[in-house]
Fold this protein.
Amino acid sequence: MKQINFAENLKHLRQSTGMTQKELAEKLSVDQRTISAWEKGVCEPNFYLLAMLCEIFEETFDGILT
């Protein structure tokens, strides 16, 4: 079974598009600290925010989670 590596995937996707944590937070209407916590693996987004992330980065759920 593949290990879910959401935190690393999110950070890579965000950095590869040149987006800051603050910019991503604004797109999702969340605090920048929330993005930071996701990227550190402290917590993960709910389904709605995960779907928005997939849309922003043109990525599938599988692609962003594994």
